[in-house]
Amino acid sequence: MKTEPVNNAAYYEQVEADVFAAMQKPRATYWLALAISLTCFGIGLACWGWQIFSGMHVSGKNNPVGWYMYITDFVFWVGIAHSGTLISAVLFLFRAKFRKAFNRSAEAMTVIAVMTAGLFPLIHLGRVWFFYWLMPYPNQRLLWVNFRSPLVWDVFAVSTYFTVSAVFFYIGLLPDLAIARRRITGIRQWFYRILSIGWRGTAKQWSHYEKLYGFLAAFATPLVISVHSVVSWDFAMSVIPGWHTTIFAPYFVAGAIFSGCAMVITLVVPMRKILGIEQYITVDHFESIAKLLLFTSMIVGYAYILEYAMAFYGGNVFETAHFMFRMLGDFRKPYWLMCFCNVLLPLTLFIRKLRRNLVYLFVLSLFVNVGMWLERFVIIVTSLAHDFDPYAWGNPNWSWVAIGITVGSFGMFFTFFLIFVKVLPVLSVTELKEERAHETLHI
Amino acid sequence: MNRRDFFRILGASTGAAVATACDQKVASKLVSQLTTPRLLPGEAEFVRSTCRECSAGCGVLAKVRDGRPVKLEGDPDNPVNRGALCMRGQAGLSRLYHPNRLRAPQLRGTTGEFQTISWDEAFAILNGALGKNITGRRHIFLSERTTGSVSGFIEDFCQKRNIERRPELELYSHAALRQANALVFGRHALPVYDVKQADLLITFGADVIETFLNPVQFAQDLAATKLKWIHLEPHLSLTGVNADERLVVRAGSEAWLLAFLAGELGVTAAQAAEQTGLKLSRITELAERLKKAKNPLVIAGGVTTATENGLLAAVLSAVLQEKHHAPLTWADDDRVGSLADVVELEQQLADGKVSVAFFHNTDPVTYRPSFGAVLGKASFRVGFGDMLNPTLAGCDLVLPLSHALEEDGAVKPFGDTQSLAGILQKLGAEARPKQAPVIQPPGDVRKFLANIKPTPVRAGRTLVITPSIRTFDGRGECLPLLSEIPDPLTTVTYGPWVTISEQDAETLSLKDGGIVGFAVGGRSFNLPVRVMPAQPVGVFTVQRPFLNGASLPLTVTGEEISVWPLDAIAVPAVPAVALPFLSGGMHAEGRGIVPGLEHKHEHEHKAEHVNKTLYPPHEYKNYRWAMAIDLDRCTGCGACVAACYVENNIPLVGRDEHVAGREMSWLRIEPFVNDAGDFEMLPMMCQQCDNAPCEPVCPVNATYHNPEGLNAQVYNRCVGTRYCSNNCPYKVRRFNWIDHPVAQPLDLMFNPDVSKRPKGVMEKCTFCVHRIVRAKDHAKDEKRLVHDGEVTTACAQTCPAQAIVFGNILDEQSHVHQQAKSDRTYRVLEELGVEPAVYYLTSRSES
User: Fold this and answer.
1) pLDDT in the model for residue B722
2) Of the candidates A125, A238, A390, which has its C-beta nearest B721's C-beta?
3) Which pLDDT score is estimated for B824?
C-alpha cells in the first residue's frame, strides 16, 4: 500500500505552543482566584490553630457524635482523588481515548486531593501532637499500632495511594518536563532541568518509560478499589446501625468515582476556557465522562435503596429505627437534598442534549459535589446521633471552626490546583503527539 | 605534676565536692505535717464525721489521704445510714475545699465593705456589743438544727449572756407533723418510722427516698423488705415511680382520702373519690387492703402536709399510726420551729426590739426576702457560717466556721477558722449535758377532729413546690457537683426549670426550654419548662430552690405552702432557652434496654444465637471482675453518680457543655418510661465487655482488654480519635474536649490514686481499677486471692438500696456470681454479642 509521506511537525509545534501558552504569565483573574483560594486556606489554618489551642469542643462534636465534619471532609477528598487514578490508570489499560483530555488534570487532582484528605485524620485527632503514634515505628518501649484497627489500615491505604499516585503523576510528566526544559527560558528553566532528570528521549528511555507507565497503571488500578474500600471499613467494621453493613466497600468505591468525575468536570470546564485549549478537550470527551458519571450515579442510587431494603427486610429494631430516622429525623433535609443531587439530578444525563451541554454539566457537577459531601455527612452523623441507647442520643452542634476548616480544605485544594496549571503542562503533550502519530502514521 | 599528685588532688577535690553536696538545701515537704500517728503516705485513713447536707445527719467516714480528705463514704456503724450515702452527702466534701469559703473573721467597715480582722478583735467587738445597755431590746440567736454538744454550748451561751434562743430554723421543718405528733403522741418531734416491720406502706406525698426525714434509711429498708408500697402524690416524683403502685391525686385532696381511710369526719368513699379524682373502686380497694394488712404504716408528709389541709392530713396519718400501733422512735429535734417563728422575728426586728442578732448556718433572708429588708434594724448582726449567704452578707460581723472534718484535727484547716463550740467557749459558754426531750401529755384528738373540716379541692392548674433531691432546700446550690449531676427523672442538670405534662405542653404550645410565666409569693417568675411523660395534666412542678427570692405563703402550721393555684399562667413572648437535659430519649422504643414482656421470648432463646468470632475467647486465671445491678432495688437516686464523680476526679464542665452534649459522667442513671407511664431507672456505666467493640478499633492500643477482663484505658497512650466512643453501643466513653482547670483549693480534693486526664484524651469507667489494685496488693502480701466483698467500687459502696454488687465472677461463692445466675438476669444489648460483664436483674413485677 502506498503511503503519503506525513509531516506532523507543524501540528506538534502547534500542540506545544498551545499547551505552553497556558503556562505563561498569569492574568488578573488568575491572581484573583489564587488570592481567594489562599485566603480560604489561611482561614482553615487559623481555625485549626485555634482548635489545637482551645480543644476539640470548638469543632461542634459531642458525646454520641465523635466524628463530624472532619471525617466527612476526609472521605469526601479521598473520594475526589479516586477518579484521577481511574481516568489515568484504568482507562489507560482499557485504551479509552477520551482519557487523554483529562488525565493530567485528573492526576494532579488526585495528588492534591489525597494531600488534602490526608490532613483530616490529623485535624480530627484530640492530641494531634502525637499523630506519629499512628505509624508503626521501632521504639524502645516496643509499642506498636493496633493492626486490627481500620484506622491503621487507613494510614497504610492512604499513604500507599498517595505514593503511587504521586509517582505515577511524575512518571507521566517526564517527557513533558523535558519539553518544558526546551521551551522555557530563564531561571524557570532550572526547575524543569532538575525535574526532567536527564530525559533525552532516546529509544531506550522511551522503551523503559512505556514499560514503567504500563506497570504503574496496572499497579494503581487495584488501589482504586482498595483505598476507598478501606475507608469504608472505618464504618463497616463498627457495630453502629447505619455503618455496619457489607455493601459499604463497593458502594463507597462507586461513590468515590462518581464524586471524582464530578470534580473533574468542575475543574476542567472553566480550565479549558481560561487556558484556551478547547480544541484538545472537546464536548465528545465531556460526553464520555458524563456517561461515567451517570453510570456511577446509578450504582450509588442502587446502594441507597439497598440499604433500606436490608434494614427493613432484616427486621432488626435498631437498623429499622435508624433508617427511619435518617429519612424522617432531624437530618432529613440533608438526606433528601443528597438524594436529589446524587440520584435524581444525574438521571437527566440520559438526555443526549443535556450531557453535551457544558454549562449544564458544570452546574450538575457542582450539585453532585454538594450531594456527595452530604452523603458522607448523613452516613457519619445520623448513624452516630441515633444508635442503640435512646438516652445517649444527641445531635452535634453548629461550629464555625469546623466550617472554617472545611472551607480551608477547598482553599488548599484550589491553591495547589491553580499553582499546578501555571507550573506544569495541563495536557499531556506527549500523548497528544502520540495520538496524532497513531492516526496519521497508522502504526 | 606526677601521676600520684594528680590522683591525690583528684581524690581530695572529689571528696570535698561530695561532702558539700550532702547538705540538703531545699526543704521540700512532700507530706503535710499532721499529728496523726497512723499516717502512712499512700495509705488512706478513715475519719468519722456527720453529714450536714440535710437534717437527717448521716454518719460519714472521710477517706483521708496524706492529710487531705478525698472522699466521703457512709459510716457502716452508723444506725442512720449503715454505710450508704446519698448524692448530697457525696458532694458535701467539696464544701471543705470550696473556693468561696470564708477564711478569716470579717467586719463591715465604715464604707460598707467587709474587712478582715483577727479573732481577738472579733471577740472584743462581740463582747462590747453584748455588754451594751439594751433597754427595750433583746439579743437573739437563730441557728440551724443543732444536736449534741453544739446545742448545749448554744444553750449555755444564750443563758449566760441573756440571749433569747429562737426556735431553730429548717426550711423543711415538717411543722404539721410535729404539731400532729404533739397532739396524738405528746411529742413535738419527728418520728423515725420503722418500715421493716410493716407489711403495707401507704405514703401520702412524703418523698421518702429523696428528702423526707432519713431518705437513705428509707431506701435501704424499702429495698430490703418485700412489703407492698403504695404512694399517693399530686405530681410526678422519683419516690412515686419507685413505689409498687403510684396513685395520682389532686393536690391538697389527700386529707379527704385519709379521713375516709381513718373513718373520721364522716367522709364517704364517694366524697374521697370526688375530691382526689381517683376511681371509687380504687379507694375501696385501698381501704380493703389497709384493713387486711397486719402491720400497715401510713405516712403523710412532704407536699401533702404543706397545704391548707396539711395539718389535718398529718393528724389523720398519726391517728392511723396510733391505731395500727406503728412502732415509732423519736428524733432529737424538738427545738426546730417553723417559718412562722421567722415571721415573728421579722416583726420584732421591724419594731426595733432586737439588739444583737446571731445567725448560725442559716439563711432566713433567702427564704423570706422581706426579712432582709428589716435585718438592718437590729443594732448589731453577727453571722456564723462557712460561706457568705444573703443573711451573712447582711451582717456586721461574720465569723468563719471550720468544717466538721477540720475540727477533728485529722485535717489541716484552711484559713483561720474556728468551730462554733470553740467560739462560744471563748465567749464564756460551757458544755452542758444533754437535756431530756420534752414529753407532754397528748392533746385531745377528738376535740381537734370535731372542730375541723377539710377544705374542698379547687380545680384548675396547680403549681406543686417540692424540695430538690439534689440541693434539698437550696443549701446544695453552692456545690457545683450537684448541678452537674442530672435530676433523676427529668435529667435536667443546670436549672431552673418547671416540669409540665405533655398535654399541657401541647395546650400551651411549649417545647422543652420554652418559657412559662407565673407569680407566686409576691414575685413573678419566667422559667423554662421540661416536658415529662407521666406528669399529671394540669400540674406544674417546680423545685423550691428555683423560687428563691419569693416569700411563699405559709400554712397554718408555719410551713411554706407546697400547692399554689396557677390559673394565671402565661406564655410570655420570649425566646426559649437551651435547657440542659441529658436524656436523648425517654422511651425505650421496644429496644429491650430494659426488657419488657415482649423481650422475654428473645431472652429465653438467646442460646440459639451463638455469635461467631475469629478470635479465641478470653481466658482468665484468677479474676474476672463483674457487676450485678438489681433494678428492683435501684431507685435511681443518683448517689452512685456522685460517688463516681468524686472517686474518679471526673471534671465538672458546666451548663454550656451540657447543652452541647459534652457531659463527662462515667456513670449515669437512664430513666425510661413505657406507655403505661411506668419508669425504669437504669444505671449505665462501662459494661467491660468480653468482645468489646472499643478495643479493636483503637489504632494505638490505648484501650485494651486486661487479663482480668477490664477494658483498660491507657490515658497517656490515647491520641483522641474517638473511634472507641463511636463504636461503643452503650456510649459510656467520655472524651476530654477541653482542659478542665479547677479553682483552688478544690484541686486538693483530687483522689491521688486516679490520674487527671488532659485535653484530647478518652476516659471511662474501669470498675475503680485503683481499688482493685490496692486489694490485690493487700491479698498478695498475705499470699492469697482477694476475698469476695474485700473490694468494691465507689458506686456500689455508696448505694443506699445496695442495688450494685461487684466482685469476681470466677469465684462461684461470690455474691456477683450468684446474682448473675439468677433467672431475673439479663444483659443490656446482649444480642450484639459483645458479652458485657454487667448483669442487670429485672424488676420482679416484670419477670
Assistant:
1) 95
2) A125
3) 86
Block residue for cell numbers 392548674 = B461
Tell me which of B492, B722, B827, B828 to substitute to probe the interface with A (most A C-beta atoms closer than 10 Å).
Answer: B722
Residues of B in contact with A149 (CB under 8 A): 696-699, 723
Q: Do A149 and B697 touch (CB under 8 A)?
A: yes
d(CA A110, CA B646): 52
The number of distinct structural domains making up chain A is: 1
The pairing of beta strand B668-673 with beta strand B679-684? antiparallel
Helix (H) or strand (E) run with residue B258 in it: helix B254-262
What amino acid occupies position A313? Y
Residues 259-298 of A with CB under 8 A from B: none
| Alpha helix positions (H), A90-149 | 91-93, 99-123
* Partner residue opposite B660 with nearest CB, options A62, A125, A239: A62
Domains of chain B, with CATH numbers?
A: 44-95 (2.20.25.90), 106-171+335-426 (3.40.50.740), 175-330 (3.40.228.10), 462-565 (2.40.40.20), 598-608+620-841 (3.30.70.20)
Partners of residue A155 in chain B, C-beta under 8 Å: 699
- Which of residues 336 through 395 in chain A touch B, CB cutoff 8 A? 384, 387-395
Flag whether residue A238 sits within 8 Å of chain B, measured between CB atoms.
yes
- Cα separation of A422 and A426, whole Å? 8
Of A146, A392, A395, Cβ closest to residue B701: A146
pTM of the prediction?
A: 0.92
Residue A290 lies in a domain: yes
**Residue A239 with chain B: CB contacts under 8 Å:** 693, 727, 729, 832, 834
Q: What is the mean pLDDT of each run of 10 residues along chain B (847 residues)?
A: 88 84 57 53 85 88 88 92 94 93 92 92 93 87 90 93 93 94 91 92 95 93 91 96 94 94 92 94 94 94 94 95 90 86 95 94 93 92 94 95 81 85 91 79 90 89 95 92 95 95 95 94 93 94 94 93 90 93 88 71 56 82 95 94 96 95 96 88 95 94 94 95 96 95 90 94 96 95 94 96 95 94 89 92 63
Mean pLDDT along residues A279-300: 92
Residue A314: domain span: 33-441
Q: A2 lies in a domain?
A: no
Angstrom distance (rounded) from CA B370 to CA B421: 31
Nearest CB to B760 within list A56, A151, A240: A56
Q: Residues 6 or more apart from A85 whose CB is under 8 A from it?
A: A107, A110, A161, A165, A168, A220, A221, A223, A224
Position B599 scores a pLDDT of 58
> What is the CATH number for A87?
1.20.1630.10
Beta-bridge partners for B168: B336
How many angstroms separate the CA atoms of B797 and B75, rounded? 11
Which ipTM was obtained for this model? 0.94
- Cα angle B228, B232, B235 (rounded to 5 degrees) comes to 135
Angle at Cα B253 formed by Cα B248 and Cα B256, nearest 5°? Answer: 115
Residue B702 Cα distances to A9, B194, B736, angstroms: 64, 51, 15
A42 in contact with chain B, both atoms CB, cutoff 8 A: no
Q: Which amino acid is at B406?
A: E
Tell me the per-residue pLDDT of A326-343, one tens digit each, with 9 for 90 and over.
Answer: 999 999 999 999 999 999
The proportion of chain A whose per-residue pLDDT surpasses 90, expressed as a percent, equals 74
User: Residue B220 and residue B801: Cα distance in Å, rounded?
Assistant: 5
Backbone angles phi, psi at B381, to 5 degrees: -125, 130
